[in-house]
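Table S5 (text form). Sequence records supplied for joint modeling of the two-component complex.
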Amino acid sequence: MSNVISGMSMSLDGFITAPDDTRENPLGVGGMRLHQWVREMNETDTKVLDDMVQNVGAIIMGRHSYDLCEGDGGWGDGGPAGKVPCFVLTHRPPDPKDVVAPDVFSFVTDGIESAVAQAKATAAGKDVGVHGATAAQQALNAGLLDGIHTMLVPILLGSGKRLFDHVGGPVELRRLWSVESSDIIHLRFEVVK
Amino acid sequence: MSNVISGMSMSLDGFITAPDDTRENPLGVGGMRLHQWVREMNETDTKVLDDMVQNVGAIIMGRHSYDLCEGDGGWGDGGPAGKVPCFVLTHRPPDPKDVVAPDVFSFVTDGIESAVAQAKATAAGKDVGVHGATAAQQALNAGLLDGIHTMLVPILLGSGKRLFDHVGGPVELRRLWSVESSDIIHLRFEVVK
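The corresponding structure-token record, covering 386 residues in total, follows.
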């Protein structure tokens, strides 16, 4: 069964980017700290990340994430998980000739429900990963988010973009598992519906 | 050596109260979810909490926390840890005759540095607990916070009061340990100085 899962590195105070995220600094100024663990992965991280990548069949993201990271912004000729198909929520799709990886990116103009439906169809039973804050909050508020995988990074950023800043109301979670790795802790939750 | 440690139950999105915290609902409307684990403690919780209580020799808090919980607000004739002395940051100390537990509460009008100094002197080598958001943020921003103990509760509250909302800038932490208990996870961090 295909689950829709947010998977993001987050500071203890809830930020997934530092301030001033641009194409030069997609995680904001100083925000690379959030991905330091990726450069220092130990066996635990490698296993957790391999499991995630093997289980993901499609990805949903907001337009901001796409604009920051596509092409030479960081993802080269792929998306955040290589050639895994990505569905980008947007009101104004880019000109097709400007899309660096047209085999990876599709643009969804009719909302999160449509994006989730298309992503699930593409994922064919695998999970749908949700990248970034906007897409996660939209999926959560639409009742379409099934799980949250947080790579909790031991830092307080103080400002930037929070993963959960526009959550409509209380959302009960169930802790599935947690595992300490390099200096982070992987936390896996199910969204209780 | 006396360490200054914030110890709070926090939702995954960083809140330590739900909205509308009053004396009737010191944790806000729906916020008791954050302390549900206290009513359902297992052996792990009991051990962790016993260790914390045995190690704490004084507590610092903001005036808002005091106003919400003193006396019949919840703490009866004590403070958040029974008769452990509490230092309340305030610009306007209450009339002494209105203080329900004068053997527990002192009022500090000259800032966080003074509160930490007085609390450390009282703690006599034990830790100083920091209760609430205001006191934790003031201690952190003054470089006086040594550790963070988060009881991470599997819920997204969406609104309320965040533990870390006015942190001056990036603060590096070091994960000391984590342990899963009932449905929460205890996370212990050291503040890197």
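Note: The longest strand of chain A covers residues 171-180.
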